[in-house]
């Protein structure tokens, strides 16, 4: 949505104060640890843009709370697997040879929105070390949440998502669909720990030298997330509301993961 379109649709500007009120109404509280997904364009015309969203989140959870966001950089992957858009096969070797190595300080996000990218550079924000599917966090629990994210199993039992699952964290989805719910990737790993994988690659610094590194990643399937979301939407633990004009949800990571694991672990019908 263009800025002009957002202005035309809006009844008035969305301020930081209004965002804070909406976050409290949906159930966000001081001291919470919360994984946030945001479609900023759905909120409306925000005075201050992404900065106001982040400042309102930090204001509501307070100094004892921890904000977490996805910081995916899917462009740091093997070009042979690119499809949105693909590149000619004749380019692949050049891309592999010249792709900048992942740097948690400077590698930008891709496909996770303006709020997540702004949060990546926010003072005090930390980042996990996975080159493709890292997370960022700010707050007292940030270092523990981001401490370990294995290259070949970034969503499994040793990962930021696993820590969020164990520490009573919540997910806040602001105007986003269930296909964006990163927490459900943990449920995929728990329900099928030996599931299919695929070969990938990226540029990494190894002993201070840039190298092209090949590895295997778990196959994910976000197409089945909306069906889980439909079940979760009717549960009492999930709170619905609006942030600006954006339909939003707040729910505990652990209960969402448990529900998905229970369903996905059932035997397939013959």
Automatic annotation (TrEMBL):
Sorted UniProt keywords: Acyltransferase, Antibiotic resistance, Transferase
What's one Pfam family the UniProt record gives for this protein?
Antibiotic_NAT
Which top-level group of life is the source organism from?
A: Bacteria
Indicate whether Secreted appears among the record's keywords.
no
GO MF term list: aminoglycoside 3-N-acetyltransferase activity
UniProt-listed GO biological process terms? response to antibiotic
Q: Which InterPro entries match?
A: Amioglycoside_AcTrfase (IPR003679), Antibiotic_NAT-like (IPR028345)
- Give EC number(s), comma-separated: 2.3.1.-
Q: What is this protein called?
A: Aminoglycoside N(3)-acetyltransferase
Q: Please report the organism this UniProt entry assigns to the protein.
A: Gluconobacter cerinus
Q: Which SUPFAM superfamilies match?
A: TTHA0583/YokD-like (SSF110710)
Recite the lineage of the species.
Bacteria, Pseudomonadati, Pseudomonadota, Alphaproteobacteria, Acetobacterales
